[in-house]
Design brief:
Blueprint: E1 3-7, H1 34-37, H2 40-54, H3 57-65, E2 70-75, H4 90-103, E3 106-111, H5 136-153, E4 159-163, H6 171-176, H7 179-182, H8 188-192, H9 199-214, E5 222-226, E6 246-251, H10 254-259, H11 266-283, E7 289-293, H12 299-302, H13 326-346, E8 349-352, H14 375-380
């Protein structure tokens, strides 16, 4: 099994840095706090307009034309519309399945957020807060969402699989990323209660989720679990015969390599990825391994140290004009693309993050170099080698 895909990030799960206009007139940094700062009708109009325009049928035809075969679609825990004040988006996912099946693509449904958040990242829905796993009723709610998704789509031709939960954070990543400094909590009380998940909890949640999903989904569709940023910690996991069609997902960004001390040179990036390839090959003995999120972004091509991919939103002053030539950028991106694609192919494939970005990297001060998160732009600029991918 080899998969070549792209994430439809920021469509059904919002990330402010990818679509700043949606947050205009508020100080909200995440999806949880946005409706708390806007009148109900304004919030609903913005969200509905965004969802109807951000991803359309045409995106699916272009993705197919690039030779990709699968899309990973992040969805929120309120997808079914049962958690006010948030608006459900099951209709949009239905549309995506119809488009995918019409144009010969498949879908990995990725449950990207949890009530109270599983990681405290902005993409977990509520910045600086990580209390989901402390609340048994919310853990059960998340399982019920997975089961309902499996019931609704388990038999669909366009389903590739269901990912249990995106990027649950454990103690090492919580501390290494200084999550609550990078993403300050708005609600001080919720922030104070926050702490990383335990590996024991996450393992049990994955086992429970597998059972709930498999009830409604045939074995030729995949159940995907994230490595919780510990790629090699799963060798003894799900070894029993009952576990079929299970895929291990790892997320690997060069900005995280930088955060942990990788030098900002092409040689160091490539060396880092080659070591990572060995780890993927090692884990492939136990599970098919996909890289569910990665991109070409790196500080060298930006022209300044981004402090592990921090943005103007995190208080890091970005560049207002290009300092790296287009030719040099292309060289850097081509080199890291080649190394990364080889590593992912040593496993079972990849999903680029992300398909598109609504950040204006030309006219908005501080965003120079962030265009490489947008796969469409990367292809257009010759940074991403479609023919090799």
């Amino acid at each position: 099994m080899q998969v070549k895909g792209v994430n439809l990030g920021n469509w059904l799960v919002l990330e402010k840095w990818m679509s700043p206009g949606l947050f205009e007139g508020t100080t909200a940094e995440d999806e949880h706090n946005l409706p708390l700062q806007l009148p109900k009708e304004v919030y609903e109009a913005r969200i509905k307009m965004h969802r109807s325009e951000y991803i359309t049928e045409r995106d699916f035809t272009r993705i197919k034309s690039l030779g990709l075969d699968t899309v990973r679609i992040p969805v929120p825990y309120f997808i079914f519309g049962d958690r006010e004040p948030f608006i459900g988006c099951i209709g949009e996912l239905d549309n995506a399945f119809n488009w995918a099946e019409r144009y010969g693509l498949q879908i990995l449904i990725d449950l990207h957020t949890a009530p109270g958040s599983q990681n405290g990242f902005d993409n977990g829905g509520e910045s600086g807060v990580c209390i989901w796993s402390q609340q048994p009723d919310e853990v059960e709610f998340e399982l019920s969402v997975l089961e309902r998704l499996a019931e609704r789509y388990g038999q669909r031709k366009g389903l590739w699989g269901i990912e249990i939960i995106n990027e649950p954070v454990l103690e090492d990543m919580w501390e290494g990323m200084h999550v609550q400094e990078r993403y300050p909590a708005v609600d001080a009380e919720r922030g104070a209660r926050s702490k990383p998940n335990t590996i024991e909890f996450i393992r049990q949640f994955y086992l429970d989720a597998y059972d709930r999903i498999r009830k409604h989904m045939p074995e030729d569709k995949y159940v995907v679990f994230h490595d919780a940023f510990r790629l090699k910690a799963w060798k003894d996991f799900m070894r029993e015969d009952k576990y079929r069609g299970v895929v291990l997902d790892t997320h690997q960004y060069l900005m995280m390599a930088e955060l942990y001390g990788c030098e900002q040179t092409v040689e160091s990036y490539v060396g880092y990825v080659k070591n990572l390839q060995k780890d993927i090959e090692e884990m492939k003995e136990y599970f098919p391994v996909i890289c569910g999120e990665w991109c070409l972004f790196n500080s060298l091509a930006v022209g300044q140290d981004t402090k592990g991919g921090q943005t103007v939103l995190n208080g890091v002053e970005g560049l207002d004009q290009e300092v790296v030539s287009d030719e040099r950028k292309k060289e850097i991106y081509n080199a890291v693309a080649k190394a990364q694609l080889e590593a992912w192919k040593a496993g079972n494939g990849y999903f680029y993050w992300s398909w598109k970005l609504l950040t204006d990297t030309v006219n908005t001060p501080g965003w120079v170099g962030w265009d490489s998160w947008d796969l469409g732009r990367c292809v257009d600029f010759g940074w991403f080698p479609v023919e090799e991918a």
